[in-house]
């Protein structure tokens, strides 16, 4: 949480305080100088005002010079009463001997004739120099100005001290006026300070407001909110700073958007990758896992995050993190369970900084199940082909060896030996032809010669051929041993017109029919059905033969697969017939499958795409 600024810590307060202190200091200095000056000026003029006129001085000098003391005192008194100065509160005249000769105060007359006790007067009489001072009388709380001036009579060239005049004046008026001025000054200072303080607050607010705004904006930027904008109040430094903050906000937003879109792009690359990707921190704990990796490893992304990659890949028993970091480039992980096979290739690479510090590990998982299956199948196929060719070749070799060893001379065995070698050669040729047509279909070079064919007619034509074969078999003497069977037809009455390659299609039906006959008991019934659904025709051939064991049903369309190898081989089968049939039907965009109960019989189904043709379409087709 952000710390709140206390009021006396703020610039706002500091500026106002400094302003007020400066004002007070200025007023203090100006006030002190001004009042001092005013005081001294006032005192000076006051002194001038209370100065006795030279006339009074002269009359006092002449009075004191008189021989007759009484007369002198009277004249002194009259001179003193002649002083008409309101400021003067007391005037005393003392002769050179220190005797008081005149006094203006109310009870002063009693003092006349007495010796003065005032040391200051004595000092003046003694020194002949005038004296003045300002005193404060605590008794009446008043300031007084005291001035003692020596009086000299000038006879001839010499000046003779004949006395002194003591003068006391009340200074209150002067002090009152100074106090009044001081009060006015203090009031003015107070008012000016108050106004100054108001101004200082305004100015400091003007300074701190933009700063405050910028502070708020930068806090917002830090929180990831770039919507605000600092108001630029002027062209000064604060204005430039506000502009810089605004620019900063735009830049930060741009770079955040850039990194955000970069992150999204990376995310979408990771999400849509067909490979699984895992990234870990330097302790090997998963930090990133994409959907594909989660699917491969059968975990949820949230469950995987934070767990060790060794546990997620289930390799803790065989590897340590150090192994992965130091030695391991690739690993093959078998994640198969009993329901489905899954083999993954794991590629490891280090996330390394320029300094060499390893900050994590990236693991890319590639599903190689299919590739492995293809590899296995290819190897199996090669071994099957070699095996299938070796068997007839071995038997042919032994027959040829026997013939070579003299059996050729035996008219009993020689023809049958030759017949076997011929049969085996035929079978090998058939197998090679089958393999060639499969390889053509695998490589995509096999082309279909599509024709619009009436399927009812075509199927009937094929089955008729089989019927003919039964008849000819039964007629020919040497084939009397051949199996007998009946072909039943259950066809829809509707003509089904389908696009197909007749030669290849006949090959498929021949193969299924031959199998039905081959794997059926003597006298079995083979039921052939033809029906249509809304957009498919379905053709089925059922026999009452051996049937196919449940476990093998899924594999009988595989190359070289036979339920009973010896029996199939004895019947001249190559094990490729159904594989070719499936390829042909899939080329027609159809499907072939089987339903079978072991010991009861099998039904082979073929479905082909079908679109109902209107009479007019056919008509138009023929016209073209
Ligand atoms: P083959 O040349 O051996 O007949 P196919 O590919 O035609 O090869 O058939 C594969 C295997 O499927 C056969 O060996 C046989 O075991 C089984 N099979 C095919 N058709 C039938 C059927 N109608 N009844 C029982 N088993 C069959």
Automatic annotation (TrEMBL):
InterPro entries: BphY/WalK/GraS-like, Cache_WalK, HAMP_dom, HATPase_C_sf, HATPase_dom, His_kinase_dom, HisK_dim/P_dom, HisK_dim/P_sf
One GO cellular component, as annotated: plasma membrane
Boundaries of every PAS domain copy: 262-327
Catalytic activity, as annotated: ATP + protein L-histidine = ADP + protein N-phospho-L-histidine
Coiled coil: 238-265
Parts of the chain that traverse the membrane: 183-207
Keyword ATP-binding attached: no
Subcellular location: Membrane
EC number(s) per entry: 2.7.13.3
Entries under SMART domains matching the protein: HAMP (SM00304), HATPase_c (SM00387), HisKA (SM00388), PAS (SM00091)
PANTHER family documented for this protein: PHOSPHATE REGULON SENSOR PROTEIN PHOR
Record's protein name: histidine kinase
Species: Ligilactobacillus salitolerans
């Amino acid at each position: 949480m952000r710390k709140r600024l206390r009021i006396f810590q703020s610039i706002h307060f500091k500026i106002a305080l400094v302003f007020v202190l400066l004002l007070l200091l200025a007023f203090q200095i100006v006030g002190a100088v001004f009042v001092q000056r005013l005081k001294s000026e006032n005192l000076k003029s006051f002194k001038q005002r209370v100065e006795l006129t030279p006339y009074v001085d002269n009359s006092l000098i002449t009075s004191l010079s008189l021989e007759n003391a009484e007369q002198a005192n009277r004249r002194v008194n009259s001179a003193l009463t002649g002083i008409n100065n309101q400021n003067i509160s007391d005037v005393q005249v003392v002769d050179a001997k220190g005797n008081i000769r005149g006094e203006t105060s109310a009870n002063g007359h009693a003092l006349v004739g007495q010796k003065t006790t005032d040391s200051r007067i004595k000092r003046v009489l003694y020194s002949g120099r005038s004296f003045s001072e300002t005193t404060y009388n605590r008794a009446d709380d008043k300031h007084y100005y005291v001035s003692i001036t020596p009086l000299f009579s000038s006879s001839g060239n010499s000046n003779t001290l004949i006395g002194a005049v003591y003068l006391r004046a009340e200074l209150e008026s002067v002090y009152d006026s100074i106090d009044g001025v001081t009060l006015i000054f203090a009031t003015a200072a107070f008012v000016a300070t108050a106004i100054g303080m108001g101004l200082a607050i305004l100015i400091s607010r003007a300074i701190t407001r933009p700063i405050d705004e910028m502070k708020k904006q930068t806090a917002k930027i830090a929180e990831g909110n770039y919507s605000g904008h600092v108001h630029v109040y002027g062209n000064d430094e604060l204005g430039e700073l506000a502009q810089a903050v605004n620019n900063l906000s735009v830049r930060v937003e741009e770079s955040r958007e850039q990194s955000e879109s970069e992150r999204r792009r990376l995310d979408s690359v990771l999400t849509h990758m067909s490979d699984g990707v895992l990234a870990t921190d330097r302790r090997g704990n998963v930090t990133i896992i994409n959907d594909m990796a989660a699917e491969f490893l059968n975990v949820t992304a949230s469950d995987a995050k934070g767990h060790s990659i060794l546990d997620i890949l289930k390799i803790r028993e065989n590897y340590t993190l150090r192994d992965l970091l130091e030695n391991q480039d690739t690993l093959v992980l078998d994640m198969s369970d009993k329901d489905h096979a899954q083999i993954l290739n794991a590629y490891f690479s280090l996330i390394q900084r320029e300094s060499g510090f390893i900050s994590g590990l990236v693991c890319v998982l590639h599903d190689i199940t299919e590739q492995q299956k293809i590899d296995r199948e290819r190897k199996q196929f090669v071994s099957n082909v070699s095996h299938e060719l070796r068997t007839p070749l071995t038997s042919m070799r032994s027959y040829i060896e026997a013939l070579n060893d003299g059996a050729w001379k035996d008219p009993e065995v020689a023809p049958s030996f030759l017949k076997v070698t011929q049969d085996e050669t035929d079978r090998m040729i058939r197998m090679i032809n089958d393999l060639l047509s499969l390889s053509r279909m695998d490589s995509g070079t096999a082309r279909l010669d599509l024709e619009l064919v009436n399927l009812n007619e075509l199927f009937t034509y094929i089955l008729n051929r089989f019927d003919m074969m039964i008849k000819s078999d039964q007629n020919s003497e040497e084939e009397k041993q051949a199996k007998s069977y009946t072909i039943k037809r259950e066809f829809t009455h509707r003509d089904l017109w389908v696009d197909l390659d007749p030669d290849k299609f006949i090959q498929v039906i021949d193969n299924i029919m031959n199998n039905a006959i081959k794997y059926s008991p003597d006298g079995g019934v083979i039921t052939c059905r033809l029906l249509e659904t809304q957009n498919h025709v379905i053709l089925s051939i059922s026999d009452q033969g051996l049937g196919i064991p449940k476990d093998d049903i899924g594999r009988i369309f595989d190359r070289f697969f036979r339920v009973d190898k010896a029996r199939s081989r004895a019947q001249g089968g190559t094990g490729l017939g159904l594989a070719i049939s499936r390829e042909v039907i899939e080329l027609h965009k159809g499907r072939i499958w089987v339903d079978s109960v072991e010991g009861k019989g099998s039904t082979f189904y073929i479905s082909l795409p079908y679109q109902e043709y209107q009479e007019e379409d056919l008509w138009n087709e023929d016209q073209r």
